[in-house]
Specification:
CATH superfamily of the largest domain: Vaccinia Virus protein VP39
CATH class of the largest domain: Alpha Beta
Largest sheet: 7 strands, mixed
Structural class: alpha/beta
Pfam families: CMAS
Family: Belongs to the CFA/CMAS family.
Keywords: Lipid metabolism, Membrane, Methyltransferase, S-adenosyl-L-methionine, Transferase, Transmembrane, Transmembrane helix
GO molecular function, one term: methyltransferase activity
Protein name: Cyclopropane-fatty-acyl-phospholipid synthase
Number of helices: 15
Strand content: 15-25%
Radius of gyration: 23 Å
CATH topology of the largest domain: Rossmann fold
C-alpha cells in the first residue's frame, strides 16, 4: 500500500528538515532532534494536510476527528507509520466516514499529488537496505512467525472462521454476507478443483498455517498431505488437529523452512505464504516448487499482490507492527520467476473478496473486544486499536484496488490441456 507519498521527512545527520509545500508556497523548518515544532509550523502543516486530504474526499474535523494536534506533525514526520501510531495513541478517530473509506480515498490521490506533498526519504534508507540484504534469509525466516503467528492460537480462533483460515475467502455463491465459514469452505473447494485432486495423490502444503487446509483436502478428497511451516505454535495446533480427526495416516506436518523440503509430490499448494518469501527469494521458491513437483504435476499459489512491481514493502506500519519484512509481489513477478520452470495455466484475481473477508474479520474481532474475550494484559487498548487499524487499513487498500488477491495455477511438463473450473 503506497501512502508514503502522502507523508514523509528529509533526514539530515540528526537534524530533521521538514519540507512543507502548498501551491507556490514552501517553508523549510529546522527541528533539532524532531522533539519540537512551533504552533505556527504545525498550523501550516495542518492546512496543507487538510487541503490534500480534502482533494481525496476526506474532511479533517468531519471524517477524521482530531484529539491531539500533534497528529499532523506525526503524519508529516513518519508517514503511514505515524498515521497508524497516532490512531493507536487515540490522537484521532474516524467521524462520518469509516476508516476503510478514508484509506481508500487517500489511496486514490494521484501519484504526482502525493509526491508533491511529502517525500519519504527515511523509508528510502530501508529501501536501499532491502535491496542489498536478504530480509527473508533462512536465519531470519522465523521473525514473522515469532512476531505475528505465535500471538497465540486462542487469539486467532476467537475471530477467524471455524476452519482457522487466515486468508481470503471465496464469496461467489455465498448468500449471507457474514457467513465466513461458507466463504472459506468455498475457497478450499475451489483450490481442490483447480488442482484436479484425485484420491491417493500426494500434496505438499507450503506454509500450511494451522493445517486446516491440509486436513480438509485429506478428509474430503482422499489425498495424502505433507504440510511445512516454521511457526511452532501453528505446527503444534496442526498436529493436535490431525490426531483429533484421525488423519495420522494421511496428513503429516513438518516444522522447518520450506527451502529444506525433500521428496516428490503430485500437487503443491501455498496459500498466503508467498507474501513472506521476499523479492530476493522468489526465484528460489519456484526452484523448490519445481524440484519437489512431479512431472505433469500442478501447483497453486494464492497470494496478495501489489498493483505494481516494487523493490520493498512500501508500508512502514505493516512492516513494524504486523508483518516484519513482508513483501507483496506483483502479478508480473508471479509469472516472471516461474515461466522458465512452469506453464502458467490460469490466473484469477478476486481481491474484492478479500475486502469482504477483512470486513467480516473486523466485525468478529470487534465483537470479541465488546464481549471482553481477549486477555486485557496481552491485548490492551493500544493492541486492539493497532489490530483495528490493520484490518481496516487493508480493507481500504483492497477497496481502492491498489492491492489484489491472485490464485495462479502452474503445470510442470503437462501434456494435457488445462481447463480451469
Amino acid at each position: 500500500m503506497e501512502f508514503e507519498g502522502i507523508f514523509a521527512i528529509l533526514p539530515s545527520f540528526g537534524t530533521t528538515v521538514v519540507a512543507v509545500g502548498c501551491g507556490i508556497v514552501a517553508m523549510y523548518v529546522v527541528i533539532i532532534g524532531g522533539n519540537f515544532i512551533s504552533p505556527k509550523v504545525n498550523s501550516l502543516i495542518r492546512r496543507v494536510v487538510t487541503k490534500r486530504f480534502a482533494s481525496a474526499g476526506v474532511r479533517i474535523g468531519q471524517d477524521i476527528v482530531i484529539h491531539d494536534e500533534r497528529a499532523f506533525w506525526a503524519w508529516a514526520k513518519s508517514g503511514s507509520l505515524g498515521f497508524g501510531e497516532t490512531y493507536m495513541a487515540k490522537m484521532w478517530d474516524t467521524g462520518s466516514q469509516p476508516l476503510e473509506e478514508i484509506v481508500a480515498g487517500l489511496a486514490q490521490l494521484p501519484p504526482e499529488t502525493k509526491r508533491k506533498m511529502f517525500k519519504a526519504w527515511n523509508w528510502r534508507i530501508f529501501d536501499i537496505y532491502y535491496r542489498l540484504f536478504n530480509m527473508q534469509s533462512v536465519s531470519r525466516a522465523d521473525i514473522i512467525a515469532k512476531k505475528h503467528y505465535n500471538l497465540g492460537n486462542e487469539f486467532f480462533s476467537a475471530w477467524l472462521d471455524s476452519n482457522m483460515q487466515y486468508s481470503c475467502g471465496y464469496w461467489d455463491g455465498v448468500a449471507d454476507p457474514d457467513d465466513i465459514d461458507a466463504a472459506q469452505v468455498n475457497k478450499m473447494n475451489l483450490i481442490a478443483r483447480k488442482l484436479q485432486l484425485e484420491p491417493g495423490m500426494t500434496v505438499v502444503d507450503v506454509g500450511c498455517g494451522w493445517g486446516t487446509l491440509s486436513c480438509f483436502l485429506a478428509s474430503n478428497y482422499g489425498v495424502k498431505v505433507t504440510g511445512v511451516n516454521i511457526s511452532t505454535e501453528q505446527v503444534k495446533f496442526a498436529r493436535e488437529l490431525v490426531a483429533q480427526r484421525g488423519l495420522a495416516n494421511q496428513v503429516t506436518f513438518i516444522l522447518d523452512d520450506y527451502r529444506n523440503l525433500s521428496g516428490k509430490f503430485d500437487r503443491l499448494v501455498t496459500v498466503g505464504f508467498l507474501e513472506h518469501v521476499g523479492l530476493m527469494n522468489l526465484p528460489e521458491f519456484f526452484d523448490v516448487a519445481h524440484r519437489v513437483l512431479k512431472p505433469g504435476g500442478l501447483a497453486l499459489v494464492q497470494s496478495i499482490t501489489n498493483g505494481k512491481t516494487v523493490h520493498v514493502q512500501a508500508d512502514q506500519f505493516i512492516h513494524k507492527y504486523i508483518f516484519p519484512n513482508g513483501y507483496l509481489p506483483s502479478p508480473k513477478l508471479l509469472v516472471k520467476y516461474a515461466e522458465s520452470k512452469f506453464v502458467v495455466e490460469d490466473m484469477q484475481n478476486f481481491g474484492v473478496d478479500y475486502m469482504r473477508t477483512l470486513q467480516v474479520w473486523h466485525k468478529r474481532f470487534k465483537a470479541c473486544v465488546d464481549k471482553g474475550i481477549f486477555d486485557p494484559e496481552k491485548q490492551d487498548e493500544t493492541f486492539v486499536r493497532m489490530w483495528e487499524f490493520y484490518l481496516l487499513y487493508c480493507t481500504g487498500a483492497f477497496k481502492a484496488r491498489i492491492t489484489h488477491l491472485y490464485q495462479v495455477v502452474y503445470s510442470k511438463k503437462r501434456p494435457e490441456i488445462y481447463i480451469a473450473p
